[in-house]
Amino acid sequence: MSRRQRHPEHANHERWLVSYADFITLLFAFFVVLYSSSQVDQRKVGKLAMAIQVAFQELGVFPASTSAVPMSGAEPMPFNTVQAIENVEKTASLGQIAPNAKGALGSGSADGNLTDLRRELEKQLAPEIKRQELALRVHGDGLVISLREVGFFDSGSAQVKAASQPAFERIARILLEREYRVRIEGHTDNVPIHTAHFASNWELSTGRATELVRLLIVKYGFDPARLSAAGYAEYHPIAENDTAGGRQLNRRVDVVVLGTQAEAAAGHRAAKTEKDSTSPNPAEKAPRTPENPVALNPSI
User: Fold this and answer.
1) Taking 60 as the threshold, does the pLDDT of residue 262 lie above it?
2) Which residues pair with 228 in a beta bridge?
3) Which of 67, 79, 110, 256 has minimal CB crowding within 10 Å?
4) CATH number for the 108-268 domain, one of 3.30.1330.60, 1.10.260.40, 3.30.310.50, 3.40.50.300?
């Protein structure tokens, strides 16, 4: 009796298709989820925009809007439409509250006040300006009233001439009526000096600056917090020291009219905040060694 011949079993080499199909399905689902999560529900955003607008109008922050924003929660206007309608009106309203600044931030009003101050000083000091004993100019820090040595000081002296006291008093009275901070800067030419009172141009320039500060405080009642003094010797000239005329212009005391005390306090707070945010850990600060010296400013 013959046996039935068995056929060899066929090996299935396509089982990988099952795993591949599962992988493709999962990948498709993953991208569907990503796409759906990236789409904003316009209806919900419209409801949110409308709710915020109504809340601010009820609080009186913004005036009541006259735009066609629906007040029905069932069919709110899409957010992009609300934004397009409101942009013009909101910009106009905000413009009434805070107009566009001209020039540097916070400098528009100060520049205007300094312009008025300069006009008043030019009017009150016209004789001295005509005799070239005094000059006015605008500097990056503010308005500079330059008192030249030829009109206000004797050579090698820090005392204001008696004949120039009325002019200095007019300056002091005008500045006393305002709240500007004032920095007094002494300057000399490059000719060395060595007297019983002043060993160098540093001492002379600083002595003249501090003498004017003393007069403003003692005689005219200035708040000392408004004042500061600096001596620069011959190192900040406004003309060449090669000629007698240039050296004469460099021998001067500049009364620099700065911003107000409120502006200074705001600037100090901003600088302190920036310093605190960027300063390293105290434990990480480098020690003050000869390789890491502390710079000193000789012009105090």
Assistant:
1) no
2) 183
3) 67
4) 3.30.1330.60
Which residue did the predictor score with more confidence, 7 or 290?
Answer: 7
Order of strands across the sheet that contains 143-148: 134-138, 143-148, 252-260, 180-187, 227-231
> For 236, which DSSP code?
S
pLDDT in tens, 127-172: 999 999 999 999 888 999 999 999 999 999 999 999 999 999 999 9
Say if residues 240 and 247 touch (Cβ distance below 8 Å).
Answer: no
Beta-strand (E) ranges in 140-288?
A: 143-148, 180-187, 227-231, 252-260
pTM above 0.70, yes or no: no
Q: In terms of residues, how long is the chain?
A: 300
Nearest partner of 81 among 108, 54, 42, judged by Cα: 42
For the chain, domain boundaries:
42-97, 108-268
Task: Annotate 92-103 with b (16+ C-beta within 10 A) or e (fewer).
Answer: eeeeeeeeeeee
* Model pLDDT for residues 19-56, shown as the tens digit of each residue: 888 889 999 998 888 887 766 666 676 777 777 777 76
Give CB contacts under 8 A, 24+ apart, made by 35-43: 40/79, 42/78, 42/79, 42/80, 43/76, 43/78
CA distance readout (Å), 141 to 144, 171, 186:
8, 19, 16
